[in-house]
Specification:
The protein is an alpha/beta fold. It is built from 15 helices and 18 strands. A hairpin with a 5-residue loop joins strand 15 and strand 16. Helix 7 packs parallel to helix 9. The radius of gyration is 23 Å and the shape is globular. The N terminus is likely disordered.
Amino acid sequence: MNRREFVSGLGAAVGAASVGAHGATVAKEPRKPNLIYVFADQLRYQSCGYAGDEYARTPNMDRLAAESCNVHQAVSSTPVCAPYRASLMTGKYQSSTGMVINEIRLSPEHKCFGHVLTQSGYKTGYIGKWHLWANQLGHHNLIKNGFTPPGPYRLGFDGEWAAYNFNHFYLHSPYFLNNAEPHIRQGYEPDGQTDMAIDYVKRHAHGDEPFALFLSWGPPHYPWGLDNVDPKWSEQFRDVNIPLSPNYSTQEDPYCDAWQKLPKDFEKNIHDWMRTYYAQTASLDANLGRLMRAVEAAGIADDTVFVFTSDHGEMFGSHGRQAKLIFYEEAARIPFLVRWPKKISKKSVTDVPLCTPDIMPTLLSMMGLSIPDTVEGQDLSAALLQGKSGVKDVAHMQGMGATAAWTDGSEWRALRDNEYTYAVYRKDGKELLFHNRRDPYQTVNLAEDRGADATLRHYREVSKQWRKEQNDTFEACSWYERWTKDRNIVNTAKGVTQDLDALHRITAKYIPESVAEKPVSQWPVG
C-alpha cells in the first residue's frame, strides 16, 4: 500500500465514524440526497403521454412516471413564467413576492431555495432560463437584461451557472457564465443545456458534498415556427393532425389581456403551431431520457431526488384563449413527477393538490433540510413518501394582472381541489365553478346552477378567507405598480424591500454602461 492509498483509506475510515468526548464511536450523519430539478416552459399536463395524450411522443416521461410519484393534481399558482419562478424560489405566493407580472426584478431579500441548499453544504448548479432579473418590458436580447450578475440576485445559487434571463429562440441561443460576455450555442438549445447538465452530474456524482442541479428548458414555449425546433423532431409530426380540444372556441374570452387574445391568423396557424409544440416536447423527452441515463450510469439514482415538471401550460384556443395566466386546466395544470427509489414507491399517484409555493418546503423536508419560517407553502412530503391523504385540501391561485404590462381588466383569484375549480374575476365579480372530474374540459359553469349554491358559497368563503390571511386585497393590476421602482420590486403584501443602492453597485461592477445596451446576438428583439 502506498502513501496515497493509505491516506485515502484512513480518510474513509475517519469519515465513516468519529470518536465522542468519552471515547464512544459516533456514527457519521448519512449523506443528504442529491436533487435534480428539471422544468420545461409551457408544457401542460394534458400533453404528456403518461397523462393519456395519444399524440404525445414522450417515452422517457412515461418511464419516469412509472418510476415516480405522480402528483397529478399539481397546478401552477400563477400560470405565467416569472411569477412561477419567484414562487418556486421563495416558497411564497405571488402577492408576497410582488412578482405580479413578468419583466420586473425580484428582490433578493427573501430566504430562498438556493440559500438553504448552499448553506446546507450542497454544490449548486443552475442551467437555462432564469427570468427573475430584467426590469424592462421586451428587449430581451440586451446584455443588461440577459446577464444576471454573481451575488444576491442569483438567490443562493452560488455554484456553477450557465443561464440567460429570457430567450425562446432555440437555435444559436445565448447564455452567460460569471461575466457579461455572452456565449452562443451552435446547436439546438435544449440539447446543449442537457449536455451541460450531464457533464455536471458526471463531475459531481461522487463528490464529498451532495449537489443540487436545476435545469430550466425553454421549450415548448412559443414561437412555434419550424425554424425554432430541430428538424429531426418536426419531421416526425409533419403529417400528424392533432385534434383541437372539445372546449376550443374562436369566440374571444372578454377577460383576456393583450397576450391571451387570439390573433387574426390563429385558425390558419393553430394546427402547425401544435405540431411544433409536440415536436418541441418530443425533443425535451429525448433529453430527459439522456439525463436520466446519465444519472443511472453514474450509479447515483438511488441517492437522487429527481423532479420533472413545468412552470405552466398552454391554452391553444380553449375557452377562446391562447397562452397562459388563467385558472383553466390547460394553463394551470402541470406535470409533476418525483423519483427517489430509496423512498418513493414506483407507479405511485397522489391526489394532493400541490401548487408552486409547496414545492420548496416539500423537497427540503424530503431531503432533511430546514424550511425557512418565511415559506408560505405546505410541506406535502407525507403524501409523496407515505401516500398519506388529507395532507392538503386546496391549492390557491392568483392572477394579479396582465402578462407583462400594468394593464387592468384581467385580474382573477381561484382555487382548486380534487373535485372543483372555483374562480372569480375582479372586473365584474363574475364567478365560475367547475366539477373537474365530471367536466374535465370545464364547459359547464355550476356557478349559474342554483342547485350548486351551497358549494359555490363554500368555495367563495374559502377563497375570501385565504386572501385575508395573505393580505391579498385583490386590486387592479395598475395598483401594484406602487410596489415597484423602475420595475424593481420594493414592496409586497408582506413587506419585502429591495436595496436599490446595492443593486446599482452590482450592475456598475458587472455590467458597465459600455456593454449594457449591446445585443448578445442577432435573434429578434421582443
